Amino acid sequence: MSLGPASSAREILSHLRSLGSQDNLAGMARFGIVTETALGLSNVELHRVARLVKINHLRALELWQTGVREARILAAFTADPKTLTLEEARHWAKDCNSWEVVDTVADLFVTARFERELIPEFAADGREFVRRTAFAMIATAAVHLKKEPDTTLLAWLPLIEQHSGDERNFVKKAVNWALRQIGKHSAACHAPALALSRRLAESSNRAARWTGKDAVRELESDKVLTRLGLS
């Protein structure tokens, strides 16, 4: 099947099914990817499809509604961040049941510049993958919003500290990711992030302690210090 910008959600889904690989599913499961609705396509293949079909927001909403892992990732790749609404973002975050889908939509939400509204809202949500979305958005923002003032990123450190004790695996790893990315954003962000990391490393809470120790290890590395001009 030949895909292009005019391809429908049904045609795209049929194409994705034709590319599915049972062999890939086992490998995905080993990385904690939920495979119940997965077809077994890599993100490299999905990016290739996205380049063919281009941005189409209404079609992206249809792809998301299928519930298929690959269709949902493709939906995030081909949704229009200028058209995406906060309610649509909230709905997608609520639907997420796998860390990799969370991390993909988090990128879209930051591109749509929803971080101010959604990060505190999602962090306060007790559902594991919704809360992960908040910290995946922080990590993504720290990497991609290069013109954002350091103060914007530093304002999220108290949120990281507040939820550092969440021992659920996918939240804990996202909190750690967010802390490390803030610390690597700039020389001005490094010291406050490292100070928080050191404080968490001494915590009596196991999750917070792991997050702190792991972040200290990276933020004190020669590679990071050299890149930031701190060595």
Largest β sheet strand count, sense and barrel closure: none
Q: What is the arithmetic mean of pLDDT?
A: 96
| Number of discrete helical segments | 15
Distance between the termini: 54 Å
Structural class label: mainly alpha
Q: Helix and strand succession?
A: HHHHHHHHHHHHHHH
Q: Regions with pLDDT < 50 over 5+ consecutive residues?
A: none
Shape type: elongated
What's the structural blueprint in terms of helices and strands?
Layout: H1 9-19, H2 22-30, H3 43-53, H4 57-65, H5 69-78, H6 86-95, H7 99-111, H8 115-124, H9 128-144, H10 150-154, H11 157-163, H12 169-185, H13 187-201, H14 206-219, H15 222-227
Helix pairs in contact: 1-4, 3-5, 4-5, 5-7, 7-9, 8-9, 9-12, 12-13, 12-14, 13-14
Describe the protein's architecture and organization:
The chain has 231 residues and is an all-alpha fold. It is 71% helix and 0% strand. Helix 1 crosses helix 4 (57-65), helix 5 packs parallel to helix 7 (99-111) and helix 12 runs parallel beside helix 14. It is elongated. The mean pLDDT is 96.
